[in-house]
Write a structure and sequence with these properties.
Strands 3-2-1-4-8 form a 5-stranded mixed sheet. The protein is globular. It is 35% helix and 19% strand. Helix 1 packs across helix 2 and helix 5 packs across helix 6. With 329 residues, the chain is α/β, with parallel strands linked by helices. It contains 9 helices and 13 strands. The chain starts with 11 loop residues before the first strand and ends in a 9-residue tail after the last helix. The protein binds zinc ion (ZN). The site of zinc ion has 7 residues, from loops.
């Protein structure tokens, strides 16, 4: 069983999830409970203004509860190195931005900065769907893109330089559609919310969407629209989600062979599709697990913390003060 939260230290931390449109900050307790919470719009074009805002939210939460220094953990989308430098962020203007250093200068407290899917994995491991896992959890966040997070031997594992666990960019079909990263046919290009939307557009353009379909004439044809139509029983929408689920399972099966996790947790907006996405993913994964009848096969389950996974994980990671397996951060 998992260690009890008390054995990993106690108290509170501030966890902050920095998105392209909002900054969400929470006061996180040792068991992962969010004691208090606030949200602000992200000034996405101004690098230092975002940093100021993050520092302000941390201060505001601390002061509202009469607390002094608290560890602060931040999760943000993008390539973040072990020194907390954001090498590249897809939705905001940080390019080689020393976020941890600048935040530490503004907040008189220890600060940790990680990729958003990595902190979400830690949140689910410590306080969500993976709370009973002993040491090893694989997480995929399936939204506009596909993010990844990995816990091995009870540590968040981010690789030699901090850029690991980008499972969205493992290539499954070299002749497949192009991903924003430049790859063709990687998991993100085949199974993300954007991929679901793209498949619907392609179906419409090729005349495969019949007039009676909920997708007929819908604009814009996004992953969300397809998911709603699929829940309403629309055949073509269900087919598209099942195709995304198939590729998701192909990727997960390979990742299970590589990592041997105890549990696979799937989060992100595309999980609104529920079993319509999960069932084909489970089936495709099961067919690809090496020696699947002779070994434990990990459950593939929905995340539990929803939108809060990132800030809960960031807060707990700061509180746990447990460096990633790669060592330095
Ligand atoms: Zn990619």
């Amino acid at each position: 069983m998992a260690q009890t939260p008390a054995s990993r230290g106690s108290g509170l931390a501030v966890g902050i999830d920095v998105g392209g449109t909002k900054v969400a900050a929470g006061l996180v307790a040792a068991d992962g409970t969010v004691v208090d919470y606030l949200r602000r719009e992200t000034p996405a074009e101004e690098s230092d203004a975002i940093c100021d805002l993050i520092a302000d939210t941390a201060r505001e939460l601390r002061e509202a509860h009469g607390l002094r220094a608290l560890p602060v953990g931040v999760g943000a989308a993008g390539l973040i190195d072990l020194d907390g430098v954001v090498r590249y962020a897809p939705n905001i203007s940080w390019r080689g931005y020393p976020l941890r250093e600048r935040l530490a200068a503004r907040i008189d407290a220890p600060v940790r900065v990680h990729n958003d899917a990595n902190v979400a994995a830690w949140g689910e491991y410590r306080a969500g769907a993976g709370v009973d896992a002993r040491s090893t959890l694989l997480m995929l966040t399936i939204g506009t893109g596909v993010g990844g997070g990995l816990v091995v031997d009870d540590h968040l594992t981010t690789g030699a330089y901090g850029f690991g666990a980008e499972f969205g960019h493992i290539v499954l079909d070299e002749g497949g559609p192009r991903c924003n990263c430049g790859n063709r046919g990687d998991l993100e290009a085949l199974a993300s919310g954007s991929a679901i939307g793209r498949m619907a557009v392609e179906a419409a353009e090729s005349g495969r969407v019949p007039e009676g379909s909920l997708l007929h004439g819908a604009s814009p044809l996004t992953g969300k629209v397809v998911t709603i139509a699929a829940h309403d029983g629309d055949e073509i929408a269900r087919e598209i989600i099942a195709t995304a689920g198939f590729w998701l399972g192909v990727g997960i099966g390979s990742l299970i062979n590589a990592i041997d996790p105890e549990i696979v947790v799937l989060g992100g907006g595309a999980m609104q599709a529920g079993e319509l996405l999960l069932a084909p993913a489970r089936a495709a994964a099961a067919e690809r697990i090496m020696g699947g009848t002779r070994r434990p096969v990990p459950p593939i389950v929905s995340a539990r913390l929803g939108d809060m996974a990132g800030l809960v994980g960031a807060g707990l990671l700061a509180m746990d003060d447990r460096p990633p397996a790669s060592g330095r951060a």
